[in-house]
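Side project, low priority. Logging it here so it doesn't get lost.
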Amino acid sequence: MGDIKAKLLDAEGKIKGELELSADIFGVVPREGILNEIVRWQRARWRSGTASTKTRAEVRGGGRKPWRQKHTGRARHGSIRAPQWVGGGVVHGPKPRCYQFKLNKKVRKLGLKMALSSRALTEKVFIAEAFPSLDRPKTKLLKKYLENVGTNSALIILPQRHLNLEKSADNLPQVKVLAVEGLNVYDILNHETVIFDKEALSKIEERLRG
């Protein structure tokens, strides 16, 4: 595999050069099975698992037979809280549970490399020397920056949290801003373009080589 390069951006989102990327991190051949398993693992961790329904034993009332067993001409019933009655218990309904499952750390790290490579190999990884200077949230400035890059679907990775930039992205549904610690496979695959702050790139390379 040849050299893998990313476009270098200035503070306005305009291309000013190229930067070579590490093939060990951005040149890994993506495998759909591994990426799918990691996305499933992430989504399972996000599930609250708090959905709950009441069984017939938990629904209030229904301690007395609604009518006698025989000679009424009606079907026999033992409780008005049986599942077939309105207001009765639920059969096989959800109960609080944990959906998480274990996934090997090496697999998670490999999946992150594959997700990044899937964007780098299609030239959808950019390196930013700087972002628009924001002393308060300003969606217009961020939108203009992304227009100069040539995308409206971007995951922006910073060395640490930047609240003004995060809030500037709130009204852009296909844009997300993350600190480098929050970088994950799901968000990479969910955005067309990944834009790294130069310092954040160094941190992610250090993290994935360790």
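Brief comment: DSSP finds seven helices and six strands in the chain.
Revisit when time allows.
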